[in-house]
Amino acid sequence: MILLGVILLIVGFVTGISILWTIGIILAVIGAVLWILGSMGHAVAGHRHYW
Predict the structure, then answer these.
(1) Predicted confidence (pLDDT) per residue in 6-47, tens digit
(2) Exposed end of the chain (fewer CB within 10 Å): N or C?
(3) What are phi and psi of 47, to 5 degrees?
(4) Please, which residues bridge with residue 44 across strands?
(5) How high is the pLDDT of residue 50?
């Protein structure tokens, strides 16, 4: 999810499409939060690792 967010950020920045930029930021933040929760040992959506 983090990788998809970064790709959308880059594509949105290069093409100037602001909706891609916004979606990329949202996906990157959600991915980072899930990664942090998973690395701390918390179960995310019933799974120990969200991937």
Answers:
(1) 888 889 889 988 898 889 899 999 988 888 877 777 666 666
(2) C
(3) -120, 145
(4) 47
(5) 53
Catalogue the long-range contacts made by 23-26 (C-beta closer than 8 Å, 24 or more residues apart). Answer: none
Strand, helix or coil for residue 16:
coil
Phi then psi for 44, rounded to 5 degrees?
Answer: -110, 115
β-partners of residue 47 are 44
Residue 51: how many CA atoms within 13 Å on its side-chain side?
Answer: 9
Instruction: Enumerate helices (H) and strands (E) in the chain, giving the number of each.
Output: 2, 0
